[in-house]
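User: I'm preparing a small set of examples for a lab meeting where we compare how different chains pack in three dimensions. I only have the primary sequence for this one, and I'd like the structure in token form so I can line it up with the others. Please keep the answer compact; I'll paste it straight into my notes.
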Amino acid sequence: MQLSEQEIIRREKLDALRKLGINPYPANLFPVDNTAKQVKEDFSEGKKVVVAGRIMSFRIQGKASFAELQDSTGRIQLYLNRDEICPGEDKTKYNELFKKLIDLGDFIGVEGELFTTQVGEKTIKVTDFSLLSKTLRPLPLPKTDAEGKVHDGFTDPELRYRMRYVDLVVNPQVKEVFVKRTKLFNAMRSFFNEKGYFEVETPVLQPIPGGAAARPFVTHHNSLDIPLYMRIANELYLKRLIVGGFDGVYEFSKNFRNEGMDRTHNPEFTAMEIYVAYKDYNWMMEFTEKLLEHCAIAVNGTTEATFGEHKVDFKAPYARVTMTDAIKQFTGFDITGKTEEEIFEAAKGMGIEVDETMGKGKLIDEIFGEKCEGNFIQPTFITDYPKEMSPLCKEHRDNPDLTERFELMVCGKEIANAYSELNDPIDQRERFEAQLKLSERGDVEAAQFIDFDFLRALEYGMPPTSGLGIGMDRLIMFLTNNQSIQEVLFFPQMRPEKKGPELSEDEKAIVEILKTSSQLALDALKQQAGLSGKKWDAAMKGLSKHGLVKVTVEGDSKTVEFKG
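Assistant: Understood. Below is the structure token output for the 564-residue chain.
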């Protein structure tokens, strides 16, 4: 393992600590009784407190020093006086341990009294401290100049997502997104619980991937010697519970789809699905808008949210537009009564990419997605989908070509999908068989399996039921103004980490210098590197080849910028 100069120094400090008889990773608990936030909110001069956290900044001033400690709630200033900490003759704890062997990022615990500095800063006057954990890698801490501009920020998205543990430490504002995510789940859960609905768990490993049309992840169970599929949806299992006698069940489920990744899709995502007996999709529309109004207030304190350039208001009620009317409004084409061939030709005429594998439902879905979806900014229910698009949905009571289904659109994206659930087992079997035929034609989004056990469950009788599914990741994106799903997942899926190029010792020496400055005058860099002409030329040529440095010429001056 190649170590940087700073990593080597920290390991040397680790050895020095042990030689002093100090365990850099002690096992005993540290009796914290306050947080940084509590200290500030319940501040009183002279109050004794015990806090712990990371050291995030130092100002060493001989016999006295200031430092900043960060815990899960924020930061608090520390004041350390040598004679206060070391009242006897032995000053080792301050002179050696604190000043020389503790680094930025180290965890320490402190005991002390509260006081206010001359400039009005609430501060802990430390009377004793303990090293709780030594860090072996330096944190990529941003620097703020005299004008308040931030430099060297830890802002590269790939690094932030890959090393979220670092992102949360050095970009504390990121934590607020995940605090709001938890508030969303808690608000939704309490809303359901207050109405008497029951939270359940259903299988993640399934013998048949059902409840949605998607490509599954496949694994193998060695003992049973059968293939198993990671859950793409939990719908069919939740409906089995309605058959079994529950009046209302819900689940926050981790779903897995072996498909592409982009700013709004991750192969592992969280969905909420709820099923309530003796209800229909009209009831579910009212339920949904009340639910989302409640959640928006719980997360942000208001029904309004900003998403990009849009102001969105989740206050009920929401507009309702049929899919037929939406397509007619934005394309001028009426899908009512049209054959598959007519819709195919119409889609082609609109410039939409179509092919022979697409059935009627898929064609309509493509038209709506391409020409209509993006126009709905405020929460809008799109209702009454064609039957071909909804194999698990009950036939519309007034029009046998349609189904009792809605999707909720916000800022051109679907965040909720709901049905009056199909509970006719014979009709359900025919819909499954129609989907299977589409799959055999090559439609990769059509269901490729028939869940015969689910059909058997329906034959035992399922009461009239309405179901709702909400994409939780996408919903929290809207509520926190994040355009990328990776921003609302602690650990989004990433491509394998690329290994850096193998560097010569001379190249490494130059890189270490640039890491501390990021940009230097070429002459100054050459002087600091201390390399002969040939070695310097070879090292710079190698670094340029690897794309790690960029030399910029302005007049007579040359500067070298680190690009690693």
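A couple of notes for your slides: The mean pLDDT is 93. DSSP finds 18 helices and 23 strands in the chain.

User: Perfect, thanks.
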